[in-house]
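Researcher: I'm preparing a figure for a lab meeting and need a structural model of a single chain. I don't have an experimental structure, so a prediction will have to do for now. The sequence is pasted below. Please return the structure as tokens so I can convert it later.
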Amino acid sequence: MASSKLQRRVAFMNQKGGVGKTTTAVSLAAAYALAGRRTLLIDLDPQAHASLHVGVDVGSLESSVYDALLEPANASKGVVNARENLDVLPSTTDLAAAELELASLPDRHRRLEMVLDALASREYEFVLLDCPPSLGLLTLNALTAAREVMIPMQAHFLALQGVSKLLDTVRLVARSTNPRLRVTGVVLCAHDATTTHTREVVADLESFFTAARTQECPWKFARVLRPAIRRNIKLAECPSFGQTVFEYAPSASGAEDYKALAASMIREWDEALKSDALRSETARGETARHASGSAPQPAPQPSAETAAQPVVRVSRGDAGSVPASSVA
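Model: Understood. Here is the structure written out token by token.
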């Protein structure tokens, strides 16, 4: 069942483990929930780290994302309410077998999209997908269901080389199963801005994304997201207590950085919603004028500054996404 609720779907991916991918997905999900935004976190990693991070007892689950992918219509049975405004579709080690089982199913790359369709009545505003550290069928499902990709990474040379492979994967999915997919940008994790090597890698990333502005590719409007997440031991400690960093160490630098990053994402999203509403109102007005025989009025043109800003994809349930004006 389609929902009229506008929805921001983001896949967090990196084929390299230990780069802060799950920490970023969980921390942003928790920050959105704390801001009063209804959020769903989907754990697609058989290690179930995102589920454990928010305190889900994966050993006692009767249903999980594994069951949801096999029977999307029953997806709601696996949803766990982890916090106020934060639901989780948790993972278990059974998910490791899903790659083989899904391979023989119809629309095997769209199973997660079918899951989200089945959960449409819950009207989540943010859906965050924590991908496994591999580029298999589970990640393909995430990229097919998502509208955006965020790449958490550390500013190291080898990590920079891996980004090109990730972008190639995104390009292939955009060409084959999800033409609306876009790369929002890179989240810098465990960041130490004092080293020369780090600054050089960040400069290379920014130059790469700037050069992409003239290309027709899914990362045309991607950027290095700010603020970077500073190296902070509290981010490594809090999962062992089943807590988010906002609960475990709310004054730590990691909590401050993720809160600030989430706030910037929310501002960007709210601006996109306003632009979407404005375009819808303009379209309705034009339709009414045509019906009455009035001469059409010129549509308002964006400023040069607005036109140069990145694109946020606004999804209306399973009806697809609407390009929206963006803010930095």
